[in-house]
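Recap slide: FlgO family outer membrane protein, sequence and predicted structure.
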Amino acid sequence: MKKIHSLLLLCLAMLSGCASWERYSLLTGNDDAESEVALQGPAKQSLKPQYYVSPALYNGEAYQATQQAAQKLQSQYQPQAAVNVNHYVQSMMHDLVANLDLVNPQMVIGMTSFVYLDGPYDQTDLLGNQLSESFMHEVHQFGLGVIDFKTTDYIRVTPQGDFVFSRDFMELKEEQPIEFVLGGTLVRHQGGTLINARLVSVASKKVAATAQGFIPQQVVDALYQSGGSEKLLLKQGE
């Protein structure tokens, strides 16, 4: 009886050793004849999906290098952050200040709407007005004096809201302490709009600084809900 029990323990040990060898074979790719004999049929097929792991995953350096390469590739194809008109105005403002003849913090600048070079100079659109607003912010950020001459002497209170700005010249002061004006022209170009900005002395009409830029069409279109700047032409003074 003891002999039979010992024989069963020996057989179990041999079977356990064969299974361990098969697992080693599957992990290392050493699929030799000895491992083929160890397990056959359904038993072998059931172990493959359970124990098979690529040897590269056990190499720490190789795994990290693969992860770093994947992250780098993913970052290259991530969409860039959306930009607007202000992004391009910042660049043009740096050019203006860089070639300004005389930087005087006491100088007073008035902002005007940008107009289309091939159109009437008393009309503009949303892009032309937004450029004026963006440059006003940038001029103030650079520490230069800027006057908003569209500010009235009173606040108009209405059911629709409370307003202090106006485009009616009859509601504005006739004289403003403006020494320089910042404005420019727009040119529609394939794929976008060319911007020609300049800072001009009111008294002498001398150009104190200039800058040029290009705004892609998709950025221009983002200003409009339905696209097409022609639908939003605004006549100054109305």
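The chain has seven helices and ten strands.
Residues 19-39, 42-53, 77-81, 226-238 have pLDDT under 50 and may be disordered.
(End of recap.)
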